[in-house]
Amino acid sequence: MLKPLRQGLPPLDPTAVSDAASCALPARFEAVREARRFSRSTLDQWDVGDRFDDICLVVSELVTNALRHAVPSGAGCSEHSAPVRLHLLRWTERLVCAVRDPSHETPVPRDSDDFSAESGRGLFLVDSFADSWGWHPLAGTLDGKVVWALFRLRPAG
C-alpha cells in the first residue's frame, strides 16, 4: 500500500517556484497548532483550491511525527530552540510540504489493523491525502532528514 520511503523528491525546477514560505517550530507539541496556523495563513494567500484541507491535515501529521519521533526527548525545551522546520513550496500546478527534523531515523508506518487507535496512523494519512511522499537525508552542514509530501494543484482558470 505504501510506496518505498527512501525516495527522492520528483524533479521540480527550483527556479520555477512561484511561492515559498517556511517557519521554525520549537520542540513543543503546541508547535503543531503553530504549524497549522502558519499553513492556513500561507495557503489562503496562495489559493490552492480544493487541496487546502488535505494540505493542512498532512502538515499536522508530518509536524506531529517530527516532534513525537524525531526530536530527542528533553531536547530543545527552551523557548528559542527550533529543531523542526516547515517549508511550503508552490509551483503553478504543484505544492510541496516539507518538514525538516534532526533525526536520521527512517519514517516507518505502523502496521496496525486497529483503525480506532488514537495514534499510529500519521503516515497512512499522509499517503492517503498527498499525491506522493517520501524522505531524504540532509547533506552538508545540515543534520537530519526532510520528510515531504507533494500535492498536485488544478491549474488556475
Would you kindly provide a brief summary of this structure?
The chain has 157 residues and is an alpha+beta fold.
Molecular structure report:
By secondary structure, this protein is an alpha+beta fold. It is built from 3 helices and 5 strands.
The ordered string of helix (H) and strand (E) elements is EHHEEHEE
Query: For the largest beta sheet, what order do the strands appear in spatially?
Result: 1-2-3-5-4
Largest sheet: 5 strands, antiparallel
Question: How far do the termini sit from each other?
Answer: 34 Å
Helices and strands, with pairings:
Layout (H helix, E strand, L loop, with lengths): L18 E7 L5 H16 L5 H19 L13 E7 L3 E8 L20 H8 L2 E6 L7 E8 L5
Antiparallel strand pairs: 1-2, 2-3, 3-5, 4-5
Keywords:
globular, 27% helix, 3 helices
